[in-house]
Design a protein that fits this description.
The chain is mostly helical. The chain has helices at about 10-25, 30-40, 45-75, 75-95, 100-115, 115-130, 135-165, 165-185, 205-215, 215-235, 235-250, 250-280, 285-305, 305-315, 325-330, 340-370, 380-405.
């Protein structure tokens, strides 16, 4: 597409991510019921299978995201973004019609291989945003996630309750394919030909991409703390449907409404609050404030006995919406324009590792402490573990920023190695 991106470019990517996240949100309330339906197991075993499905997805993302990031630096953001949406659409349809558990695993593997939407969208935003505006725009992109989780789970809970657990997956597949068509007609390219660079297999792999980004010691330290924080956060999407089903007996509709509430808070914090806080406090302090909010919310979940305590935790946890835009802004501002795709690919690789470690660990812990055969009945066990990881990750991030000097204000660059 030859058209140069104008003021509407951000609106295009915002809507693209919004529709994509609606599709993701639709399937969450129905996932426990679909696994139980296909595999014929109880909730504790369904949680373990859910963790394995996430593991397969994460492995595909881990190996393919660096390739996708490097491709976006070579051929542009637009074709990579549209291709990933097509892959997601096929995945959801495969899962929606899956007759066997093995087919669910095939679908998740394909989805992981095409999971480039988020990293490419972030590179797109870096292309069109001045350094001082990136924190706010990453926050607005986070608001698209939040809005998607308002609309998606509410729709998914209703569709799953009315038409069965397969219907939300089929709906999500159709949405993803429609989103790809939307992007084909309205999404312009943002990476200029002169800013592109050759594809290099030495960087287009998980180890090579991380080593390239890791040449900056400060970035490497921030990535390490990001790994711990993101791993802890994975407890929520991986165990929440199973946790609320076992703790409160919730079904698709109740799960959907709770996730919609999460999305509403996330949209408010990241869309209207994150940019202002990052400019006022700097990326470092804003990220640490978000970590404190996440710790508070996970403590609520650990001891929750009724729905009021859970919703109090969700409310406190909304402050955690500061973490991702602050960290993304900090790292993006320390990276050259023609390396943004590589950075986002490295971040996607780290996120994939957290999706390998986090959901598998937390769902197995939940299964061990949940019916039918708990070691000890303690449904909040995964959240207690996640709280400990958050504390360690927050301390590691504070040390990394302090070691590089005072927390950088929005728009400032981190010092490179040896500077």
């Amino acid at each position: 597409m030859a058209r140069t991106p104008g003021k509407t470019a951000f609106a295009f990517i915002f809507l693209t991510v919004l529709v994509e996240m609606i599709g993701v949100g639709i399937i969450l309330p129905a996932l426990p019921a679909l696994i139980q339906n296909v595999a014929g197991v109880q909730i504790g075993d369904a949680a373990k299978i859910g963790g394995l499905l996430t593991l397969v997805f994460a492995l595909g993302q881990f190996f393919c995201s660096p390739i996708v990031g490097a491709l976006s630096d070579r051929i542009g953001r637009r074709p990579v973004l549209i291709g990933s949406l097509l892959g997601y659409g096929v995945d959801y349809l495969i899962m929606g019609f899956a007759p066997l558990l093995a087919v669910l695993f095939v679908g998740r593997a394909l989805s992981g291989a095409f999971a480039a939407t988020v990293s490419t969208a972030n590179a797109y935003i870096a292309d069109i945003s001045p350094a001082e505006e990136r924190g706010g725009r990453f926050g607005m992109l986070g608001a698209a996630f939040g809005l998607g989780f308002i609309i998606g789970p509410a729709i998914g809970g209703w569709i799953g309750g009315e038409f069965g657990p397969r219907a939300p997956f089929i709906t999500a597949g159709c949405l993803a394919l429609a989103n790809a068509a939307f992007g084909f007609f309205v999404l312009p390219e943002t990476l200029k030909p002169e800013d592109r660079r050759a594809f290099d297999w030495r960087r287009a792999n998980p180890v090579g991409g991380l080593m390239s980004v890791g040449k900056n010691r400060t970035l490497l330290a921030v990535l390490a703390s990001f790994f711990l924080i993101q791993t802890a956060w994975m407890v929520l999407p991986s165990t929440w449907p199973f946790f609320t089903t076992a703790r409160l007996g919730w079904e698709e509709k109740e799960i959907g409404w709770s996730l919609a509430y999460v999305g509403l808070l996330a949209a408010f914090v990241q869309g209207f609050f994150a940019g202002r806080v990052i400019k006022a406090l700097g990326e470092g302090k804003a990220a640490l404030l978000g970590v404190v909010g996440m710790v508070g919310s996970f403590l609520f979940y650990t001891v929750a006995a009724d729905w009021r305590v859970l919703y109090a935790g969700l409310t406190v946890g909304a402050v955690g919406g500061l973490v991702m835009p602050a960290l993304q802004s900090l790292m993006s501002n320390a990276t050259a324009r023609n390396e943004q795709g590589e950075l986002q690919g490295a971040l996607a690789s780290v996120m994939a590792i957290t999706m390998i470690v986090g959901p598998f660990t937390f769902t197995q812990v939940f299964g061990a402490f949940a019916p039918p055969d708990p070691v000890v009945l303690f449904l909040g066990a995964p959240y207690a573990l996640a709280t400990a990881l958050l504390v360690v990750g927050g301390l590691a991030f504070a040390a990394a920023v302090r070691g590089a000097g005072a927390p950088a204000p929005s728009g400032a660059s981190l010092p490179a190695e040896g500077s």
